[in-house]
Amino acid sequence: MPHLLYVEASPRKDRSASIAAAHAFLETWRGRHPEGSVDTLDVWNTQLPDFDGEALAGKYAALAGEPLSLAQDEAWSAIRALAERFRRADLLLFAVPMWNYTIPYRLKHLFDLVSQKDLLFTFDERGQNGLLKAKAVVINARGVQIGDDFPADIYDHQSTYMATWLRMVGVTDVHQILVEKGLMGPDLDAAARAQGRAEAEALANRL
Ligand SMILES: Cc1cc2nc3c(=O)[nH]c(=O)nc-3n(C[C@H](O)[C@H](O)[C@H](O)COP(=O)(O)O)c2cc1C
To answer: For 49-53, which contacts have Cβ atoms below 8 Å and span 24 or more sequence positions?
Structure first.
């Protein structure tokens, strides 16, 4: 029974271009995997604990191979629960708006919480080894089109960061969809959304 974790990083809901394409993916995927399960992690409506104080001290204690204090362990229970949602998934689906050429801060907050040694990766003399075996689909929505006036090597810290983070946690089978020009007028927006939906459905038919 395949299990999908859907991480929703846009607060725009009904107006969101990334969520519209993600929903098209989910509808097709559910049709193909009626026995599958979907866990939705909406970063705007999920309690994300601050990563400071005891939680941060616990991270450094664990890195130093020291036992965690009770307070540190308590602070880590929410982090472990969030990471477990990633560990369970066979497929990760992300709806990601571009904000200031990178990902929204709530999604980065989630990544900073769950990206922990022995939860999503190990660390040894060979370096960092990701523990996730899932595949991933990333839907990147943008107001402009990256390229030309916005060269990707300078402006794209969205799809590239997603690929870097996924690789860090072991996910290398990554499919990225772009839904661009959302702020370039209703016609270009509608055309980009229609293409994004079509690409998402086609991908869901293959995964
Ligand atoms: C805070 C904020 C920052 C944004 N920064 C960028 C940006 O740097 N580049 C860009 O192309 N679009 C930018 N946009 C536009 C969004 O990427 C665009 O509206 C996209 O459709 C958002 O995805 P969503 O519709 O799934 O929420 C920004 C929007 C917001 C709200």
So the answer is: 49/75, 49/78, 49/79, 49/113, 51/109, 51/112, 51/113
